[in-house]
Amino acid sequence: MAATETDGGFTSGMTPCTNNKQGSDISLDAAVPLADSSKFLASKAENAANGELAANPCPMKICESLTYRPGFWDLQQCAQIEAWIEDTCWRGHAGLLPGANTVDATPCRTKYFFGNGYTYGRGLRGREALLPLGAVCPIPDWLHHLVIAPLESRGMIPPGWVDSVVMNDYRTGSSIVAHVDPPRLFARPILTASFFAPARLVFGASFDPERKTPPAYAQLLTRGSVLMLDGYSANKVTHGIRPEDMLGERRVSMILRHLIEAPPQSLTLQYPDA
Q: pLDDT at position 138, please?
């Protein structure tokens, strides 16, 4: 059965899901209670207990554990953030960002690690490890002020909660392989902010050439939106973006997370002033 679009989400062969928490449900200018910090403090053991994947992912449970806010940043705010993204990418290309592990570039995708970095890759799944302090660039001021601070002031996350950001610059033909954010390293929820072109984030889909397993659920991510993954969607099912899910020539996402424990200590790396 063809996928059905509803409220920015797609379910495959299912009754449309209407429980996804949408930005239209609240006024972003209205006073909202700040996020309860105690709900954001998951231990490594708790995350590990929740980390076994569901054999048959449930679209309704995925939908219910997502919080999606389209238009969280308006067009003017997006343009300002995207200008800073361009500046940061230029600095990374010119070698002006501190941290030996800040930039990881491939032909169709460049990753920028800020705050705290970690090892990753197909051969390291389940064995990811935090990099020592100083291995990646601190979170830039512009990212604090324009991206993180609005999430804090509107009650999405507690103040000071984000200590790890990965900025992904994706071009045509790139993908985000199916994965679960390492439960050994990162507390829940996981937040994704989207800029430039939109894309679909697919849950439970295979990435084989035949696409033997279609998505159990797919969430549209528009420019200026933020998506929060928690519970079932963060722990019980993989998520990713296939090349056909990219809906433009370039998409930049920012993955905002909180470390469960402090990174290993090391001598602070020294870099010349840019």
A: 97
